[in-house]
Write the structure tokens for this entry.
Amino acid sequence: MTQSGPEKITATPARASTFSPFRYPVFRAIWIANLFSNLGATIQSVAAAWLMTELTTSNQMIALVQASTTLPIMLFGLIAGAIADNFDRRRVMLAAQVGMLITSSALAALAYLGLIGPITLLAFTLTVGVGTSLNSPAWQSSVRQTVPRGELPQAIALNSMSFNTARSVGPALGGVLISVWDTSLAFAINAVSYIALIVVLLRWHPLHRVVARRPIFPAIGAGLRFCFTSSPIRRLLIRGCFLGFGISAYMALMPAVVGVQLGGTEIDFGVMLAVFGIGSIMAAPFVGQLRQRIDLEGVLGVSVVIYLLAMSVLAEVHAVIWAAPVALLAGMAWVAVMTSLNTAMQFRSPDDIIGRCLSIYQAITFGGMAIGSWFWGAVADAASLPIALHAASGYLVVGTVLLWRLAPIPKRGEGVVETH
């Protein structure tokens, strides 16, 4: 990407296709750099989860590794959204990326020296999660600065595809790295992966955005008031929290299931996550078409049925060869839920507070995931892994039926705001 001045996004092409956002150099460059960053992050998450299985036998502590990556989004997401709306989003992303580079480098060094314990590991994954919570609202808000509004759904789907491409390659690669060396190498590779995105952000010069700065907490209050007085957004937030809590059981308990119930190795764990990522990649280009056919309510309903199947099978099988196929289906359901809710929020959020709206959505959805990860891990310790997975399945089914009546998903066009 070479630019001599600020980039202006012009009119939408007559026909927007799945991959049409790639015609915009800024979007393309950030997408590629973000792919490498996501790859490194996925490798690190695999290493951290597996390292915890070697440091402790507690299912709750193992599940907390997953929770520690999402909990900061709940705790700091609202502040991060206000920062994204009040400051230069490019600089906010740069600060977050540099912070995660430093933290991951320190984690790699301490792991190499054998100085990592369960609490230390959680502290580092929490710190990286803080960087993610700061980066995410700024990045998602800035997508509108890289593609026209008419191609926003395609851009969101491609960003999800970047993450899930990394999830399809990173887990297997992480498992290999751990087996041939140890977790310190995986952590070091993640640290290096931030460099490409930092370079791209340094070279990107978007058009100056006029910002009416407000004190952080009044700005957060304005975002909260809008989200909770808007009926369509309020219903989206309720569904995001509900689904985040329920589907978290699958990813949070998978390391324990593979290591204990299936008797697998770090390679097996990597394969399970890789198959999950492949399912996400396969489904991402078609989620938009599916929403056109059965609306968002139908997409979420189908996704719940798929998760019910995936968690029920994972609870009962005792070999990776039987668990891996349903991981493919779970990956498809995951990308359908996350991209659909994100797109619905983007189109219902005004430009001047979109960072806060998206951060509120992420805080509630990922907060549900963090609390769910801890909760289902506690259930697994108190009862068993199969009981925890079956309980999560039952929660999803009963909750979906109730919320279909109490908090229905907005209809097509309901609550959509115009941008200028």
